[in-house]
Amino acid sequence: MARVTEGILSEDFILSTDLDRYQELMRLPPAAFNGLNKSDEEPVYFCSTIWKQSDRDFLAMNLATAEEMREIEVGYHLSPKYIEDEEHDYFTTLVLNRKHLIEVGKQATSDIELGASLSHGVETAPNDPVELTVTTSVTETSEICVYYPGEDVKINPSSISISGGIATIKIPRSRLVLPSLLDDRVDHLDYYKNANFLTTVDVKRCYNDPSDVATIRWLGTGHCIDTCTLNTQTACMIAAGNRARRISKVKLAPASYNASSGVWSTQAYTYCHTPISVLVSYRSGKRNSIKTELLTARLAHTLMPNKPSSCPTVHMYWQEDTKEQDVWTPYGNSMGAFNAWIVDSRDRIGVGGMFA
């Protein structure tokens, strides 16, 4: 996504409605949004304000705040996300913290091509989007991820396709600005200058690793001489049925994983005394939708002291979102807050100690 300055968001926070998606939803000119001066954008979009990095960072903070507010209310992630090593008191049946379970395991990555070259074309007629191809055995486009070279920061392609072992990736030129140039400069970056953009990216496979889903933990081995020693055993974890997945209800058992066959084999408990806890890893959340994304973006508007842009779509939404209403909600009393809460209050899982 359009890059957020390090330290603005917590290290492990991933925006469901990210900056690139906000730019698309609000129909903002992509070059100007990413700090680039592109002379032919103004007559097309009728809004030519060039964003600074601090503008994008402030927007990201408010999008993150709006997302957190909504996720606390509904009890699940607004888009699929990984949760790693979530700790619970040990029981053979658990209800996990985040609902709408998708799969158990941890996110893993493997290299497809590091330092894949980008061809920007001639400056008078640059390639946009920039297209690159990589050879891969991956067959699912959802498993192909693009990163800034040498970093763990993703770049959002506009499209990915795979045919005959070749993945074709298209990335909007405006999303490839050199990180060193993303600042609050007065002399705006020239969209047509190739030196302002990355020349390589890292392409990796992002996938679910089912071999590390749960770890049972004991203090000691049951003898009084080693009660300060932490001992562990791997476990399998499964959710059976749609309702169990909706509320993230799982069953656990000590087991070992066979990497060759991809099969778990249950085992006896290594220690006979009661485990102190279990760490579980899984991916959960609902599939993102335009409706959900707009609700988050418009709730974020209500948290800002000023509208983030004067462009027509933002201006129209801003005026409506910030209108005060006669009803108060946990999100506030503006129209944007009311609209988001009405939807979330109906969709939340877990009311009064009972699962809806």
Could you characterize the architecture of this molecule?
Helix 6 crosses helix 8. By secondary structure, the chain is an alpha+beta fold. The protein is 22% helix and 32% strand. The strands form six sheets. Strands 2, 3, 4, 15, 16, 17, 18 and 19 form an eight-stranded antiparallel sheet that branches. The protein folds into three domains: 117 residues, no CATH class; 99 residues, no CATH class; 103 residues. 32% of the residues are buried. The longest helix is centred in the N-terminal third of the chain and has 22 residues.
Q: Quaternary status of these chains?
A: single chain
CA radius of gyration is: 24 Å
Average pLDDT: 92
Q: CA-to-CA gap between the ends?
A: 35 Å
Q: How would you classify the helix and strand content by structural class?
A: alpha+beta
Q: How many beta-strand runs?
A: 21
Low-pLDDT windows of residues: 351-356
Task: Describe how the helices and strands are arranged.
Layout: H1 19-25, H2 30-33, E1 36-37, H3 42-45, H4 53-74, E2 81-88, E3 93-95, E4 101-104, E5 106-117, E6 121-122, E7 125-126, E8 130-135, E9 144-147, E10 154-155, E11 159-163, E12 166-171, E13 189-190, E14 200-209, E15 214-219, E16 230-238, H5 242-247, E17 249-258, E18 263-266, E19 277-284, H6 290-301, H7 312-321, E20 324-329, E21 332-334, H8 335-347
Parallel strand pairs: 1-13
Antiparallel strand pairs: 2-19, 3-17, 4-19, 5-14, 6-7, 8-12, 9-10, 9-14, 11-12, 15-16, 15-19, 16-17, 17-18, 20-21
